[in-house]
Amino acid sequence: MQITTIKIYGFGKFHDTTIDLSNRFSLLYGENEAGKSTLVAFITSMLFGFETAKHRYAMYQPKQGSQYGGELYFTHGSNDYWLKRVGGTHGGDVTLRNLTTDTALTKDDLIQLLQPLNKELFYQIFCFGERELQAVFNLNRFDLVKRIQRIGAIGSENWIGLTQELTASAGELYKPRGRVQPLVRLLKEYDEMSEKIDTAKTQFQQYQTLQNDAQKTAKKLAAVQKQLSELTDRLNQYQRLIKLYPQYQQLKNGAPKQSRTPISTEDWQRATRLSTAVKQLQQDLATQEQTIKQQQRKHVASDAQQFYTAHQQQIDQLATQMSAMEQLQQRQQQNDSQLAAVKQELAKLNQQYGASLANLKVLTAGEQSQIKDLFDQQQHLSIERDSRAEQRQEHQKAFEKLRQQADSDTSTGMDLKWLIGGVVVVLVALFGFSGILRTVGGIIGMLVAGYGIFKPIISGNQQSTIDSQMALLSSQLDQDRQQLAALDQQLIDADAQVTQFGAEHQLQNFAPERWLDLQADLSLYRAANAQQIQLQEQQDQIGQNLRAYLAQWQFAGEVISLGGSHDFQLQQISQFLSKRRDESQQLHWANEALTANTQRQTALQQQLNTQQTNLTQLLARYQLTTLTEFEQRYQQDQAMAQENQRRGVLNAQLTPADRQILDNSESQEFLEQTEQQLQTQLVEQRQTQAELLKQSSQQQYQLQRLAASDKYQNLLQQQADLQTEITSLTDDWLTKQLLINWIDQTLINASQGRQPQIIKVAEQFFQQLTGNRYRQIIFTDQTVQVTRDDALTFDVGELSSGTAEQLYVALRFAFTKVMADVIAMPIIIDDAFVNFDRQRTASALKMLKELAQTSQVIYLTANHDNLALAEDNEIYHLSAGKSV
Amino acid sequence: MKFIHAADLHLDSPFEGLQRLPKALWQQIHEAPFNATKQMVTDAIEQKVDFVLLVGDLFDRETQSVQAQVFLNEQLQRLVDDGIGVFVSFGNHDYMTAEQHLALQEGVNVFGSDVTTQTLTTADHTRVAISGFSYADRWLEHDVVPQFPERGDADFQIGMLHGAVKQGEANHYAPFTVSELASTNYDYWALGHIHKPGVLSEQPLIVYSGTIQGRHKLESGRHGYQVVSSQGKHLERQFVPADQVRWATLSLAVDETTTDASLIEAVQAALTNSVADTFKLIDLSLTGIEKLSASMLSRLNDGTWLERLDQTQKKTYRQTRAWVYEVNVLPTNRPVQYAKLDANYWQRAQKTVFTPDNVALTAGKLMQYPFIADHLRQPETTANLTDRAKNELLAQSRLEEENDADHDD
Hints:
The complex is a heterodimer.
Chain A: E1 2-11, E2 14-20, E3 25-29, H1 36-48, E4 69-76, E5 79-86, E6 93-98, E7 103-105, H2 107-114, H3 119-126, E8 127-129, H4 130-138, H5 141-149, H6 156-173, H7 182-253, H8 265-298, H9 303-310, H10 312-353, H11 365-407, H12 416-432, H13 435-458, H14 463-504, H15 512-552, H16 557-560, H17 566-621, H18 627-653, H19 656-664, H20 668-708, H21 711-769, E9 774-779, E10 784-788, E11 793-795, H22 801-822, E12 827-830, H23 838-851, E13 857-861, E14 875-877
Parallel strand pairs in A: 3-13, 3-14, 8-12, 12-13
Antiparallel strand pairs in A: 1-2, 1-4, 4-5, 5-6, 6-7, 9-10, 10-11
Helix pairs in contact in A: 5-22, 6-21, 7-20, 7-21, 8-17, 10-15, 10-17, 11-14, 12-13, 21-22
Chain B: E1 2-6, H1 23-46, E2 51-55, H2 66-81, E3 85-89, E4 108-110, E5 116-121, E6 127-132, E7 156-162, H3 178-182, E8 188-192, E9 198-201, E10 205-208, E11 224-231, E12 234-241, E13 245-253, H4 260-273, E14 279-287, H5 294-301, H6 304-320, E15 322-329, H7 343-353, H8 356-363, H9 370-377, H10 379-407
Parallel strand pairs in B: 1-2, 2-3, 3-4, 6-7, 7-8, 8-10, 13-14, 14-15
Antiparallel strand pairs in B: 1-11, 5-6, 9-10, 11-12
Helix pairs in contact in B: 1-2, 4-6, 5-10
């Protein structure tokens, strides 16, 4: 790119300024403050955009109110362009025109055109200023070499500046040999912490040792305690034995008596029981004998009973007939009363009918019905005749009445009976009643009286019929008379038949109407006669039987006092028998009681024998015969048992060990001595125990203290936290350090990548700048070397500072040239050679002019002397002439 | 039949990755492994389990503390007193040597260095055989599974194994393969060593109970123990969280409008919205940082912002039940604004600079500290440093832009 014309509307101190830059090389002269940097900023701002308000000072807003911006004419490739940029958003409003093709282009086209550059890169590659060079010149040798080595990278100055800042800030965090940096301090803290932890860690060993010790102490303690308890036991034993010793001695001397089999308590109790039973039985037996004697004395049979016993068979046999005899005797009495009743009935009938009854026969059933029919016929005829006679009388009466009516038609007036009755009723009603009854009564009375007055008038008109009725009745009366006569005849025939029947049966002494009733009494009479004869016969028979039976009892006549009527005799016998039965019963019961008592006596005797035998046997078991001996022996045995018991108690108190000790001890003093020794041992062991207990409690306390302490754990956690802090800070530091590393490596890589081209160009420039004194530049991994024209090789560090600066300038321009070969852009040098002497500046300008052959070079300078080093047409005065 | 399977209690191991916590919170976190263990024991008693299996690494030999031992003994005693069987095998951290081993009280069944089998009959008359062993050394490089006995006639046979699945050449922790375990026909393999709870196989159950309490950011998520109960002839497994503090992440997006205060508010709001029963330790990740102002970005990078957040957190962490302990500024996807002309040089350099070796080299003397060396040797560290360098580069270039602009003329 070749910028041909710059037109400034207003930018910083510039306004309405036009600068012609049509030459490949332009020297722009201006004193300090003339606006050299502003011009550089204008060019970059035109190409890459105005700065934003964020960077106020870099905006270069015009001071005098001109329009912000300007124009650039430039050639790029083979085309001419016109660029206008004025104030606006996003770096200003751009107008771009391809003048060659006469086409309007956009802001994006401009960016495309400038690819891959941006403002920063442009500055880094194509702008080269006093400040940069001055900084390089101020570097020490080492840094200079470094800078030279990295010259092939874009923006290496800036990057190097960044690495320097990073180095500084990293150094604030950590320096391997530092003392005050935070990471250093933390590491120191960490070391101290680790020591503390190591110390604290021994706690665990301590704890374990303590645990072991505590266990040992516990074991010892247990052993001592066991011994103690043994000692205490022995001591107690001796103390006990000392007390028992006299008793022991006593018992030992008095040897126990060899006892016979002692009487056991059961046997003792049994013997007592048996002897009591024997006594009781003997007593019972005596009582029993007494009772039996009394009973035997009490019950003796009477004379009558003895007689009965003597004739028992005969009497018992007769007694069996007794009830039959008594029945016979009762029958006789009944018969007597029946006979009396029959006789009375016969006497009554004889009195009623006289002696004729005996001649009459009883009518048969046929005869009875025959006479009954005759009576019925007689009665029937009689009734019919009576009714005919009555009918005739009525007819007679009716005929009489009709004749009277016909005689007296008008004779009758009022009926007085009715009239008087009605007046009576009215009077009764008037005086006897009151109220409605009086009214009703009055009315009824007047009606009755009225009827009496008006009755004849009512029955008036019957005269015409009466005459015909009278004729009819008179014929009727004749007929009645004839019928009556016939009936009378029939009645007479019937009476004759009845009379005939009475004669035939001897009934003429009796009225015919009684004939049939008489038949019943007649039968009765005949039956009573027959019964009387039969009863009489029976009475005779019974009397005969009784007499025969009583005759058999005559052998006991005196005893029973027989005499008098049969009846009385029977009663006597019956009484006698009843008494005998009672007495026999009593004797029987008395006998049974006696038998029972006798049996009991026998049983008691047996029991007595058994018990006595048992007692004797029991006593015999102990070779004894009497109970008294037995009791004495028992008392002796009891006394013995008590003594044995005492011995037993003592024996129980003595264990085999006790016995052994006692047997081995010749005296109580010996025992007491041993006891004293034990006492002493006990005191000693107690002391040991106390010591061990103290030790144990100390150990336990220490264990607890260690267990309770979380110091170690806390330290561990603190250490972990510290580690975190340290690693975090390490990361911070390493990030910076690695970033430095990265940037550096990139710069080295880039430089090395461009080295061959750069070296080629740089060697030319270096030759020019040094007046051909040096001809070769060699890059090695560590350093940069140059070869002088006399073939001597120098390390950069060995060069004079001036030569080193020349080398840097040569390389720097070589880099720009190399880059400009790729991206053709104007190279802007802002008073870079202020430190150079005349000769060197001349060489430098010569070099620039050579550079201008491939790229446009704009050289800004404040050094007036430099004007001489350029052609007039190449020079532009910023403060004078063209600039206002 | 019911039992608890737990492992890797690591009672005396400290929490890693925390700094500058308030005293009370520090205490709470410090007690978390103890409280988690206590809860497990309480659950065991309340659930009336028949026995408890503890498969190694109950504590760390290297940092063994009296307090931890006393605590463990107390808790085991609670189980023993309640008639619950306790079966302990030691792992690579609490390996037992002849001269020194943990004195566990009577009633606790400790497996020796050879595989042995203990049998018991549970309250419901189930016969259970438990086989296991303890480490006798820090490492155990051979496969121990062949030493386990063949399945006996017990109703259930359980194997206790502290180790890791065989991977590659070097295996230091009783290496095994899942198929090998499955072929033993055991009913349950109670595994320890890996701190993340995991089920290697459902049939038969081959299960890592995981550590009972996560101790650093890599042990994020729920931690606890397994409760296993018999359902007829097969076993049912359930994971039960017991951790008192949980490691979690929170991701927030930032943009041009984000300020120190607004970001703190956003963090607080996010924490308030997700308050949970278990206290959370939060690793905060920020995305979209390229939109941030350079100064904001550098305050995030150099920890100034986190310090400011800490001031707020100190007042609110009891309510939010969370504490942000770290801020990760995720690198932007946008390339750093270095010269495009040199892009390949930057990339090449990045590859040579950000290697674990170069990291170690750069760290220099710091590598003398094993914990730093461990940290730096991890590949994640290198990756993290790369991201951070990019962020720093971004921040620096931003700053420079701003500075350049302000300082010109």
